[in-house]
Amino acid sequence: MNIAVIGDLMLDHFVIGRVDRISPEAPVPVVRFEKDEFRLGGAANVAANVQSLDATALVVGVVGADDTAGTLRQLLRDRGLSDERLIAVQGRPTTRKVRVVTTRNQQVARVDYEDEAPLEGAAVDTLLAAVRAACQASQAIILSDYRKGVVTPAVIAAARSAAGTCPIIVDPKVPDAARYAGVTVLTPNHHEAELMTGTRIKTAADARSAARTLHAATGANILITWGEHGMWLYDASATPAIDLHIPATAREVADVTGAGDTVVASLALALARGDSLSDAARLANRAAGIVVGKFGAATVTLGELGNGAMRQ
């Protein structure tokens, strides 16, 4: 099973060390370096999640012509993911998030290397061609939008035109909900849903109202991820339409980084194999409950999800 993963690729770089004193120069901790760790982030972490669920991720995105791109490509290959659909752009840095972290997993600081401007020139045509080819070869499509310039209206349109009957799942970041009109499922977290609707989400009634407002703006089914409250699903494709609150399953939260990546990957897997949206959302909720118990952007396997996830 192929799942196209199109979006903003990132490299998560962890600088890990011990803290035993405060700097005499400023009221900040001094981190005594011990090691570096590199992990896939953003759309690359979505692809890693797809691969860990025993599907094949066709990864499409943009990198620079720099050392960070080399590290990112190698990490993809180490996971059995192809880097042949990555478009290298001269003068544009590969997105890298450098986190200074203590050995107790406490984050001290973060430095971002990135360019959020949309692509220009010939790179746009190359990207659109790669998007169309990946979508036509897939059974589900994920658009992972971190607002780094890849998931533009042109890319969304190209994915829609090439999708056929394949579901398109979007993890959004842009507050203009209409930008994502015509996709199958939109999966904002509750903060993003608040920005998109101009409302606050504090109760189940708030979540229901926000989901319906987003559906009216996009025509999409809406799955709002809601932290410790779980998820809220508005499935407009069901007859009659379904409003469903799915309680959270996490027993212990270590790190919510990348949880949305796991949600869209597991949701796409379930929809690609023909599960109902309600069942797919329940699977995604279970996957999110597992991954937030891990440090950093992490993945979930079918084995961790249990026998129900392994239906083919």
Please specify the SSE layout and strand pairing.
Elements: E1 2-7, E2 9-22, E3 29-42, H1 43-52, E4 56-64, H2 67-78, E5 86-89, E6 96-102, E7 107-113, H3 122-136, E8 140-144, H4 153-163, E9 168-171, E10 185-186, H5 190-197, H6 204-218, E11 221-225, E12 231-235, E13 242-246, H7 259-272, H8 277-291, H9 302-305
Parallel strand pairs: 1-4, 1-8, 2-6, 4-5, 8-9, 9-10, 10-11
Antiparallel strand pairs: 2-3, 6-7, 11-12, 12-13
Helix pairs in contact: 1-7, 3-4, 5-6, 7-8
Structure description:
It is a single chain. 33% of the residues lie in helices and 28% in strands. It has 312 residues and is of the alpha/beta class. The protein has a domain at 167-306: UDP-N-acetylmuramoyl-L-alanine:D-glutamate ligase. The strands form 2 sheets. The protein has a 9-stranded mixed sheet with strand order 5-4-1-8-9-10-11-12-13, with helices on both faces. Strand 4 (56-64), helix 2 (67-78) and strand 5 form a beta-alpha-beta unit. The termini are close together.
Low-confidence stretches: none
Mean pLDDT: 91
CATH topology of the domain at 167-306: UDP-N-acetylmuramoyl-L-alanine:D-glutamate ligase
| CATH architecture descriptor text of the domain at 167-306 | 3-Layer(aba) Sandwich
CATH class of the domain at 167-306: Alpha Beta
Report the span from N to C terminus: 10 Å
The largest sheet is: 9 strands, mixed
Number of helices: 9
Helix and strand string, N-terminal first? EEEHEHEEEHEHEEHHEEEHHH
Percent of residues in helices comes to: 25-40%
Largest sheet strand order:
5-4-1-8-9-10-11-12-13
What is the strand content?
25-35%
Indicate the structural class: alpha/beta
Number of strands: 13
CATH homologous superfamily title of the domain at 167-306? Ribokinase
Radius of gyration: 19 Å
Shape: globular
